[in-house]
Write a structure and sequence with these properties.
Length: 466
């Protein structure tokens, strides 16, 4: 059994080997000691003392006990996880811990995500007392915090805090408690209960489909060419505004392939720092016109990339056009996504172009293009039935039956070389409810098209007339 310091391409590491257990590797960054070799050797020395005490069942040397008292939470949690030390019984103060958590985790996030953490911390500081601890915060206290959030003012005058904001705040605190449990300074996560919703789904009340005509009308009133391109990038390239337009350069555009490379700060930390986006005609014409006019900067939007509030800028342009829609930039992007979906592009391609998963796309970005679409669909279906249209189209029946036969093993590949008695026919007596497979040989397979299950004698059309 030993703890030793080694080095690889990622830097220094502490290798711990205990018989009967999996080898453990610890990195300095996660343990709060950086890449300092002296600090690593000090940790290795004390870990060897802990291993020796575990092996002989003796006491831990006093110098190692003192060292453990000053060890960081992350390091102590690692040692506890591999069974070298007991769980820490120190009950940390809640608010100082939350401030430390937000500060530490915020370093890895983009500005907008750091703002979410900061907002959650501000709400916690207003509700929880300075002397409350992680251990004293139970499920009842967490529920009280959520009810308190529900009574707080919203962003708009006369409104209460939105449900999505409440859920997101509770999710941040849940993540903080999960981290505390991993460190061994909290026994459980009171915000992890199902009684406290943390899912931040889309809000249908804010969904609005912005048609191409409405967008082009707003663009026609733009005096600044950059404004036209900005709106076109949001609507016809479905970019996130403003984060994904700041670093867009002319060199990122491939005119021949009609595609551009988009850098995404939001997804960069997940290993998806860039993606390819198609340039469809509405956007291509705007970009080409600006480029041929003589681009003086390497950036496509040299002025607007530094603008502090693009959302308000777009709102003013839309208002000038005598129009208005909720969540201006979000609905621009979402409406473009909906157009791509309805243009029959593969959904996995659309999701890749937009920089998110198919699940997220349908949950947050899909829009109903017509407020009366439910009624329209029902009326069209009613007219189709009344006119006898598409009641049982043969081009649908044949593939369904073919698929069923392939699964049944009756015929490996029914095609032009199949025997003549292997045919498909619709039973006129059953008004397309029954498909009979077979010929004069009498080898019939009867199926109900609704479930593709073989019929039985209990079904009306199979009973004997006697």
């Amino acid at each position: 059994m030993s703890a030793s310091v080694s080095k690889d391409a990622k830097g220094l590491r502490l290798d711990i080997r205990i018989p009967g257990r999996n080898p453990t590797c610890m990195r300095g960054k996660r343990l709060g000691i950086g890449n300092n070799q002296a600090a690593f050797r000090q940790v290795a020395f004390h870990v060897n003392n802990l291993i020796g005490a575990l092996q002989v069942g003796g006491c831990v040397p006093s110098e190692t006990q003192v060292w453990l008292g000053g060890a960081g939470d992350a390091l102590y949690a690692k040692l506890h996880k591999i069974g070298l030390v007991p769980a820490r019984n120190v009950d940390r103060l809640l608010l100082p811990y939350l401030r430390e958590f937000v500060d530490d985790h915020g370093k890895q996030l983009v500005k907008s995500s750091r703002q979410v953490l900061g907002r959650a911390l501000a709400h916690a500081e207003r509700f929880f007392a300075e002397d409350e601890t992680l251990g004293s915060t139970d499920l009842q206290r967490a529920l009280q915090f959520r009810r308190w959030l529900q009574g707080q003012k919203g962003q708009r005058p006369g409104t209460l805090m939105a449900e999505a904001t409440i859920n997101k705040t509770c999710r941040v605190l849940s993540q903080a408690f999960d981290h505390a449990v991993e460190l061994g300074i909290a026994k459980d996560n009171p915000f992890g209960s199902r009684k406290i919703p943390k899912s931040v789904g889309g809000n249908p009340d804010h969904y609005e489909y912005v048609s191409r005509d409405r967008v082009l009308r707003a663009m026609s009133l733009c005096r600044n060419p950059e404004d036209r391109i900005l709106i076109a990038l949001g609507r016809f390239a479905c970019l996130r505004l403003p984060s994904e337009i700041r670093d867009l350069r002319w060199e990122d555009i491939d005119w021949e392939k009609r595609e551009m490379t988009i850098r995404s700060p939001k997804t960069a930390r997940h290993g998806k720092g860039s993606r390819k986006v198609p340039i469809f005609p509405d956007l291509y014409s705007e970009l080409r016109t600006a480029y041929e006019a003589g681009a003086k900067s390497e950036y496509v939007l040299p002025t607007l990339r530094k603008h502090s509030n693009l959302n308000q800028r777009v709102k003013r342009i839309v208002k000038l056009a005598g129009d208005h829609w909720k969540k201006t930039n979000q609905n621009l992007r979402a409406s473009g996504v909906e157009d791509w979906i309805r243009a029959s592009h593969p959904v996995q391609d659309v999701a890749r172009w937009c920089g998110h998963t198919v699940k997220v796309m349908f949950e947050h970005y899909s829009r109903i293009t017509n407020a009366h679409s439910a009624s329209d669909a029902a009326l069209k279906a009613a007219r189709g039935v009344a006119q006898g249209a598409e009641s049982c189209p043969s081009e649908v029946v044949v593939p369904v039956v073919t698929s069923a036969i392939l699964r049944s093993g009756k015929q490996e590949s029914p095609d032009a070389d199949a025997p003549e008695d292997f045919c498909f026919s619709e039973s006129a007596d059953d008004e397309c409810e029954l498909v009979t497979v077979g010929g004069d040989s009498g080898d019939h397979l009867s199926m109900d098209l609704i479930g593709l299950e073989p019929t039985t004698s209990s079904m009306p059309w199979m009973r004997s007339s006697n």
